[in-house]
Design a protein that fits this description.
Elements lengths: L6 E4 L6 H15 L6 H9 L5 E8 L4 E9 L6 E7 L8 H10 L6 E5 L4 H9 L3 E12 L16 E5 L6 H11 L11 H8 L9 E6 L2 E15 L5 E11 L8 H15 L4 E7 L3 H9 L3 E11 L4
Parallel strand pairs: 4-5, 10-11
Antiparallel strand pairs: 1-2, 2-3, 3-4, 5-12, 6-11, 6-12, 7-8, 8-9, 9-10
Amino acid sequence: MPQSLPYELEHPAVPPVEEIAALASRAEAADGDPPFSDQTLVDLRTAPAGRVGTVLARDSGGELAGAAVCVHEPDDGAQLVELVVDPGHRRRGIGTALAAALAGKSGGTVRAWAHGGHPGAATLAARHGLVPVRDLHRLLRPLGKAPDLPLPEEMPAGFRLRAFEPGRDEDEWLRVNAAAFADHPEQGRMTLEDLRQREAEPWFDPAGFLLAVRADEPATVAGFHWTKVHSGDGGDAGPGEVYAVGVSPEHQGTGLGRALTAAGVNHLARRGLAEVMLYVDGDNRAALRLYERLGFRPWHLDVMYARTASA
């Protein structure tokens, strides 16, 4: 970072989580893209010492102008990096300085998310030897007004829907989630602490966390549709989200996934929301085709870049 610019880099032992979250909210309001994933924000709050590192940039008045977060992933030891610069402090070299500071501390495999797939992120990634390895598509669908619900909704025979019950369903949901997303790099490794952190978020609503159970086994979860409602401008509700849809492997291929998807989308429509969005990996062609048939269309693209230890 040029010495003439009034910014200083910090490497705090304890990250100022709420200050970083507020910076992320300002950036999302300006860009339409959240700079950090939900899991990164959870890790900032709950991960044990040494697992999460941060580099901060502050202006001469002490305002947080930029932040880079590096999470050491437990499965393979890779480092997951996400970075944000305040909209009022951009094009002043802060992103370059934060990336360089992290690069000096990062060895082994490094992965970095560029939420929104911005060209500047691609340039910064290439400068540090990272190449694109994963596309995460965001799709969007308009919602009709109740009672004209968007999708036909009929559960397969023998199943019914009920709402998630905090304090009762956590372990059973974690079992099904791990099985349904065994090959997913983020969703499949959610822990009880991760789930409880999300239950503590202002957006969490158990009424929108739909569980499919057998009529004669209401405690055993066969599948789920977890919805989310984003904040909009002025405190109004923003778009709804298909946060996660999962079906236990023994019930896949029964039509339960499509029925759960419809039930969650209709739940969001009943709340009067105008739109619903979702994330899906670019290599999941079957899911992309399903969501296209359900009326979803391409909206935004997130790109993951990576550099391996041997690169």
